[in-house]
Hints:
Strand content: 15-25%
Number of helices: 13
Largest sheet: 8 strands, mixed
Number of strands: 8
Structural class: alpha/beta
Strand order of the largest sheet: 1-2-4-3-5-6-7-8
Distance between the termini: 23 Å
Mean pLDDT: 96
Amino acid sequence: xxxxxxxxxxxxxxxxxxxxxxxxxxxxxxxxxxxxxxxxxxxxxxxxxxxxxxxxxxxxxxxxxxxxxxxxxxxxxxxxxxxxxxxxxxxxxxxxxxxxxxxxxxxxxxxxxxxxxxxxxxxxxxxxxxxxxxxxxxxxxxxxxxxxxxxxxxxxxxxxxxxxxxxxxxxxxxxxxxxxxxxxxxxxxxxxxxxxxxxxxxxxxxxxxxxxxxxxxxxxxxxxxxxxxxxxxxxxxxxxxxxxxxxxxxxxxxxxxxxxxxxxxxxxxxxxxxxxxxx
Length: 279
């Protein structure tokens, strides 16, 4: 897809886009990834809606944080500015960090959002998480530190992918759980990452945003697609259902955190059904 830089209030962001008809679909990736993670999804989408995918600050080809520090409120502000940049009613797709950032951005701009498609995350994760007790957070910080050393040594994606593959306990190495093509693609994204992201982002969690107040500002459907082995807890689904009547959820059996990567067919099928529901 064509790409360009756009100016938000605080940073210059890199965006890929495709023209089409209907409501735009806006993709927000997770932490330590980039908009490239959505390439496979946008390739197989059969709907002809315009699509936009943005690199978060410090990720991909977007500008790094001017302060050198990263937190979710800054990501939310960037996402909100991006929605205003598009300036018309749209459908949000967000994974992990991108799901929560885009959700709160939508709550700040409800007139611009006709649907929110969350992948393996709800805002409750960032509202309740204790970073020091989360294996997912600690694992991400370790990977960030390894990537930083690879950058300093001038290593390429293949070399970093090998190092990432060797991480983990003897019987649970990354290379035993993820295919080599994925590790190398992820390594390429990690080499673009500002290493200060994994050093600072999690220190600002949990966040203190008011979830009930945000949901009261929204009226659009919210759909969660999540992996059986991902981050979402049943209690989080129950809480979201109790707080918001227009919330639905779909479990993908066998999936981990990146449903869109390893279960692309199920992810896209659910997304296209959701798009039709929102138009």
